[in-house]
Structure formats: C-alpha cells, structure tokens
Amino acid sequence: MSSDSLPAFASRLNSMKSKSELWEGRDDLIGWIHRQGTIAGLNLVDFNYPEHLEGYSISEVKIALSESGLSNGAVCLRYPKHFSLGAFTNPDASLRREAIQLTLEAGQWARELGAKELIVWPAYDGYDYPLQVNYSELWQHVVQSFQEVCDFFPELRVSLEPKPTEPRRYFIQNTTGAGLLMVLEVDRENMGLTLDFGHCLMAGENPAQSVALVGKHKKLWGMQLNDGFVRPGCEDGMLLGSVHPQQTLECLLWLQRTKYDGHLYFDTFPINEDPVREAEANIRRCTSWWNQAAELEAKGLSNWQSNHDILKTFEAMEDL
After folding, report:
1. Does the residue 167 lie in any domain?
2. Whole-angstrom Cα distance, residue 261 to residue 248?
3. How far does Cα 273 stand from its chain's mean position?
4. Could you tell me if 53 and 95 are in contact, meaning their C-beta atoms sit under 8 angstroms apart?
5. Which stretch of DSSP H or E encloses residue 282?
6. What's 263's DSSP letter?
7. Is 286 helix (H, G, I), strand (E, B) or coil?
8. Residue 49 DSSP symbol
9. What confidence tens digit (pLDDT) does each residue in 113-122 have?
10. pLDDT tens digits, one per residue of 161-178
C-alpha cells in the first residue's frame, strides 16, 4: 500500500443489533453480516470468537460473507467470564491451557475464513489490587502463551490489543509502550499490536504518537478508530472525530507515514443512532481526513513540524 492509499474498512458487528426495528432481516450472526453488507464503503467483517461464531459452520459464514459482498478482516478473542481471574494469566494452569486452546480455535477460524489477523484483547489478564499478583510471573505467562500461538499460526498476524483498564482495574499490558515491550519479548515475526484510539486516550496517550512508536518498529497490525470524552475507566465508543477531530487527523497522518498496511476498524457503539448510517458517517469522515492528511503532507507539513511551526499548520488547514 502506498502511503496515501486508503485502507479497507471494517465496522463493529455488534452494532448491527442496535435499532433492529430499522432492519427487516434475521436477528442473528447471518443477519448482522447481511446488514453490514448494506453499509456503503464497507469491505470487511471482524468476528469475535467464540461470541459470534460458536454454533455456526465455516460454510454458513462464508456464504453469508459472499452474499453480502464482504470478506473477513480479523477474528478477535472474547474470553468467556469463567476466565474472570485471567486467561493467559490465570493462577490455574488448566485454565491457562484452556485459554490458549480457545485462542488456537479462533486462529483456525481466521485461517479458514481467509483473515490475515488474529486479535487478542486480554479482557481479564491483569489485576485489581496492590499486592495481589506477581507482575513478573503474569508477564512471563503471557509471553509464553503468545509464543505458542504465533508458532502454531506462522501465516497469521497475531495481535495484542492493549487497554489500561476495564473490566480489570489494570491490564498487565496497560499502555502502548508496555504492549510493544511484550511484542519485542515474544520475539516472533508475526507478533504485533492492534491499537484502539479510545484505549490510547484512556491511558493518557496521544494516539498518533502511539502509532508513530509502534510503526517505527513495523509492528502495527491493526487500528481501531472511535472517540470519547475520556472519563476515568470509561470507553464511550463514539463517532469518529466527534470529540478529538485534530487528534484523529494526526493519527491518520501517522498511519500514512508509517506505511500502515492493515485495515481500519470502527469500534463504535451506536445506541440511539441507526448503526448503518453511523458506520457510513465514520467511513465518510475517515476518508475525508485521510485525504486531508495527505494534502497537508504534500504542502510541506514535515518542514513546518521540523520548525515546530503550529501556526503554519493551522493556516494550511484553514485552506483545506
């Protein structure tokens, strides 16, 4: 992908459950795929495992994707609640083994559906209290688990999605830097990170700087876009750029600069909005800002940044 070409788009499948009165199709996985097929500009579907796929066959899902004109972008882990004390970090070795096995099953789905990425969001790999855990021990459990998964699926990009908090008080990889350090310690060619714009904000980070850091190491496998008011421990999942428009623009700029070659996933949570229109608004806004970022670069943004000349940048943005 050239630095200014637009990536493919995916959007949150669970959003298709919202405003069901606007949809005449089935209210199940197959129906949600078909509903996403009506979104103008959408290319891919990202599935949660086992949440979405359990009980369905590969052929059923493939047929639904084909009928909707979509492909599978990624399969994302959603560990069941009996892992609430940890998946890869559970104190029970048998549950750690079960979590690895579940991850391998998700990887098999990704392989069969033609996805390039297996995303692990470690919802329960963390702790809640001071003095509760041995941080070094938890870290090593996770490193070894990822090494096993990466070795089993050398053709897949295996991706860790960091988050600072929620549902655990702290994740063991609670910042972009911690996530990148873990990736480097896993030390596998196919191990990388998926960054979530809202998770970066929750961690007190600038998403664009996080993209620059991970992109420098060529380890950014996925990018999830959204927005929010960034209250402590709260993930709003709002419309793209609705609260942080300039940081969204800058994030897209750094995706171009680091030659990001994954897809863009809109991890937004429409509740009172038509989810199809909301996804289409995300796609339009993202496309517009992606092009604006490329225009700024062409006008000389790098030179202005070398001089720390923010006024020149603002003046150029007024002309876009």
Report:
1. yes
2. 18
3. 22
4. no
5. helix 275-299
6. -
7. helix
8. E
9. 999 999 999 9
10. 999 999 999 999 999 999
